[in-house]
């Protein structure tokens, strides 16, 4: 599972240019607008953008790839579906590691990943860094 998630994150970072430009623009504008609000800290704004991207777009496509047209000919059995759900859960936890304390039970598995792997992808999407 660790190798699978690391490979998936690597592909995300390598293919950021394929990420829909309209979605990148929306998330970038959301980040810029919310960053100007006095009551919100940058970490909170990043957490909102992260939640929007992962919970609403990336993780649903990972868990149900046939529904989003990613695959159409390969059936997904229960074991594969469970593994896809674990990948989505790990992606969300890795994205939120800097902003909040995670579940102590998952710290051992999160220790096998680069802490900034998903954050680097999010920085590119919100316009923090160039590819």
Automatic annotation (TrEMBL):
Residue limits of the Ras-GAP domain? Answer: 1-96
SUPFAM superfamilies, per the entry: GTPase activation domain, GAP
Which Pfam families does its entry note? RasGAP
Question: Which PROSITE patterns does the protein's record reference?
Answer: RAS_GTPASE_ACTIV_2 (PS50018)
Looking up InterPro entries in the UniProt record yields: RasGAP_dom (IPR001936), Rho_GTPase_activation_prot (IPR008936)
Name of this protein: GTPase activating protein and VPS9 domains 1
Instruction: Name its species.
Output: Mustela putorius furo (European domestic ferret)
């Amino acid at each position: 599972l660790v190798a699978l998630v690391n490979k998936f994150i690597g592909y995300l970072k390598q293919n950021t240019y394929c990420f829909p430009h309209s979605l990148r623009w929306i998330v970038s504008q959301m980040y810029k607008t919310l960053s100007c609000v006095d009551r919100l800290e940058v970490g909170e704004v990043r957490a909102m953008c992260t939640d929007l991207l992962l919970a609403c777009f990336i993780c649903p496509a990972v868990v149900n790839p046939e529904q989003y047209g990613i695959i159409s000919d390969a059936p997904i059995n229960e074991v594969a579906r469970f593994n896809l759900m674990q990948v989505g859960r790990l992606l969300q936890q890795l994205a939120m590691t800097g902003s909040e304390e995670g579940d102590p039970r998952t710290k051992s598995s999160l220790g096998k990943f680069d802490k900034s792997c998903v954050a680097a992808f999010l920085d590119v999407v919100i316009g923090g860094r160039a590819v």
